[in-house]
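Supplementary Text 2. Reproducibility record for the structural model of the 155-residue chain.

All settings were left at their defaults, and a single model was retained for analysis rather than an ensemble. We include the record here because the model underlies the residue-level annotations in Supplementary Table 4.
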Amino acid sequence: AYNRLSSDPLCSCPEVLVVDDDPFNILVMENILTSLGLSVVSAFNGKQALEVFNYRMRSPCGPHCIPIRMIFMDLSMPIMDGYECTYHLKEIFKENPAFACPIIACTAAAQIEEQQKAKQTGMDDFCTKPVSKSKIVEYVKKYSEKKSIKSLVIL
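Retained model, structure tokens:
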């Protein structure tokens, strides 16, 4: 069994942000992540994702509030796509390094060009849909070892 990405019991804010314009895809990701003991917040496009992320930065639940620790980002969405959202998030991370976290592209488009564009945009990793629980566990383990995530326990 997995635990929260952070062991601080004083904060129950979501640790993982899932961004996708398809409610079914969000539901699948939420089910996988919550089955691993992780808390999740979702957004339906890049603009909403930035709003959620900025809100968490500006309005912590308290002095022990844990920032979002991992983002699973669809690439093709209305209003603002995953590439543009990632660009803006990376700018936020430059100004606020304590809030930096891995961004994993999740898309049905598995072409090499999409993967290269995702990397060039600043995404940390790439997974194709449909996602599997084992693949999500792999990403959580991989990025929980980085300094942006304090302790494991799981995109």
